[in-house]
Design a protein that fits this description.
Blueprint lengths: L3 E2 L2 E2 L5 H17 L3 H14 L6 E3 L1 H7 L3 E6 L9 H14 L4 E6 L3 H13 L2 E7 H6 L1 H9 L3 E5 L6 H13 L5 E3 L10 H9 L1 H14 L5 E5 L4 H7 L9 E9 L10 H4 L1 E5 L2 E5 L24 H8 L4 E6 H15 L5 H15 L6 E6 L7 H8 L3
Helix pairs in contact: 2-4, 4-5, 4-9, 5-7, 9-11, 10-11, 14-15
C-alpha cells in the first residue's frame, strides 16, 4: 500500500497512535480484496445506498453554455444526500471486521457526520461526532439529522470552531480510546493509511462514470471536474482515470472572498507545504508556519489542508486546481437550480461554476463530467440568510 504520494503523506502522529494506524492498515490489507467483504460492501452500496448513482446529461446547461456536452455525476442522490456515503459504509464495515464497537468522526458541513450516524445506526455501532461551533450554527439540519439517528454530538469551541478544530478534538479522543474505538476519517487526508482507504472507497464514483459514459457516449470524458476541500469526492472521481492522459482534470477550491484577500480556503492555490493532522501536504499558513484562519460559504470546503495525493497531482501538473469565489459559487447554485431543477450543495456549486467556465471554451463534441458531490437542502437556510429573503 502507498504510504506517501511523492513527498506527501506519511504518519506525523503521536507515538500512541502508531500501533492503531498499523492495525488499521493491516485490517484494510486483509479485507479489501476479501470476497465476502466486497460482496457485503456491494450489497450496501446497491440496496441501501442507491448505487449506481445516475450520470445525467444536462442538456439545458449544455445548450446555454454553447460548448462541450455537460454531464453531472449525481452523488447528491446517494442515501444521505452526498458522496460521503461511499466512504462511511466501507469504513463502517471495516470497523465491524476489526471488532470495534464505537465510531468517532469529525464533520464540517455535517454531511460526513450525518453519513457516519447513518452507517453506525444500520450497522449497530455507537457513534460520536465532533463538529465546530461555527459549523453547528450554519448546519442545523444536519445536526438534527445526526442526533435523530442516535449519534452523540461534541460541539468544539476551540480555535476557529470549524472543521480543523473538530479534527484536532477527534484525534485527541482517539489517542485515549484506541482499544474499542474506530476513527472514521471523513476525507482523503490525515495520516497513512486514511488517504488511500478513503480514496479507494470513493473511487466507485470514477469507475461508474467510466462505465456509464461508455454506454452513453462510447467514450471517456475529455474533462472531469470536482470540488476540493479535503478532496475525497475529487480523488474518487479522478483516480480511475489518472493513467489515461487523454482525460484532463480540474479541481475547484473555495477562494472565498478572492485569491490574495486572505479570506479563502484555497489550499492548493495559495498554500505552502507543511504538516497538519498527521500528514505532509499543502496548507494555508502564515510566514511563521502557523495555520491560517479560513473562509468559505461552503462549510465542507472550509479547511486549511488537503489530501496528500492532491498535493502530488498539483506538483506533477496532472490536475489543474482553480479558486472559485463565494459569489461565483452562489451564481452557479442559482444557475443549476433554475436551468436543470437541481439544487446543489454549496460545495458542489464551486465545481459547477468551474466546470461551466471550462465547458464554454471547449468544442461541442467534447464531454465534461462534473461531480455533484451533495444536495443543497442543507444550505438553504444559509443562502436565505445571506441573500436576505423573507
Amino acid at each position: 500500500m502507498e504510504t506517501r504520494f511523492g513527498d506527501y503523506g506519511g504518519q506525523y502522529v503521536p507515538e500512541v497512535l502508531i500501533s492503531a494506524l498499523r492495525e488499521l492498515e493491516s485490517a484494510y490489507e486483509s479485507y479489501k480484496d476479501d470476497i465476502k467483504f466486497k460482496e457485503e460492501l456491494e450489497w450496501y452500496n446497491r440496496y441501501y445506498g442507491g448505487r449506481p448513482t445516475p450520470l445525467y446529461f444536462a442538456k439545458n446547461l449544455t445548450r446555454l453554455m454553447g460548448g462541450a456536452k455537460i454531464y453531472l455525476k449525481r452523488e447528491d442522490l446517494c442515501h444521505g444526500g452526498a458522496h460521503k456515503f461511499n466512504n462511511v459504509i466501507g469504513q463502517g464495515l471495516l470497523c465491524k471486521r476489526m471488532g470495534k464497537t464505537r465510531i468517532i468522526a469529525e464533520t464540517g458541513a455535517g454531511q460526513h457526520g450525518t453519513a457516519t450516524a447513518m452507517a453506525a445506526a444500520v450497522l449497530g455501532l455507537k457513534a460520536e461526532i465532533y463538529m465546530g461551533e461555527e459549523d453547528v450554527k450554519r448546519q442545523k439540519m444536519n445536526v438534527y439529522r445526526m442526533r435523530l439517528m442516535g449519534a452523540k454530538l461534541h460541539v468544539v469551541r476551540s480555535g476557529s470552531s470549524t472543521l480543523k478544530d473538530a479534527v484536532n478534538e477527534a484525534m485527541r479522543d482517539w489517542a485515549t480510546s484506541v482499544g474499542d474505538t474506530y476513527y472514521l476519517f471523513g476525507t482523503a487526508a490525515g495520516p497513512h493509511p486514511y488517504p488511500t482507504i478513503v480514496r479507494d472507497f470513493q473511487s466507485v464514483i470514477g469507475r461508474e462514470i467510466r462505465e456509464q459514459l461508455m454506454e452513453l457516449e462510447q467514450n471517456v470524458p475529455d474533462l472531469l471536474v470536482a470540488c476540493v476541500g479535503g478532496g475525497s469526492n475529487a480523488i474518487g472521481t479522478f483516480h480511475p482515470f489518472l493513467d489515461n492522459e487523454r482525460v484532463r482534470m480540474l479541481g475547484a477550491e473555495a477562494a472565498g472572498c478572492g485569491l490574495g484577500t486572505g479570506r479563502t480556503s484555497a489550499t492548493l492555490c495559495e498554500g505552502k507545504v507543511g504538516v497538519l493532522h498527521g500528514a505532509k501536504s499543502y496548507l494555508l499558513q502564515d510566514d511563521n508556519g502557523m495555520i491560517s484562519r479560513t473562509h468559505s460559504i461552503a462549510a465542507g470546503l472550509d479547511y486549511p489542508g488537503v489530501g496528500p495525493q492532491h498535493s502530488y497531482l498539483k506538483d506533477t501538473k496532472r490536475v489543474d486546481y482553480v479558486g472559485v469565489t463565494d459569489k461565483q459559487a452562489l451564481s452557479a447554485f442559482h444557475q443549476l437550480s433554475r436551468t436543470e431543477g437541481i439544487i446543489p450543495a454549496l460545495e458542489s456549486a464551486h465545481a459547477i461554476y468551474a466546470g461551466l467556465e471550462r465547458a464554454k471554451q471547449m468544442e461541442r463534441d467534447e464531454i465534461v463530467v462534473i461531480t455533484l458531490s451533495g444536495r443543497g437542502d442543507k444550505d438553504l437556510e444559509s443562502v436565505i440568510e445571506m441573500e436576505g429573503y423573507e
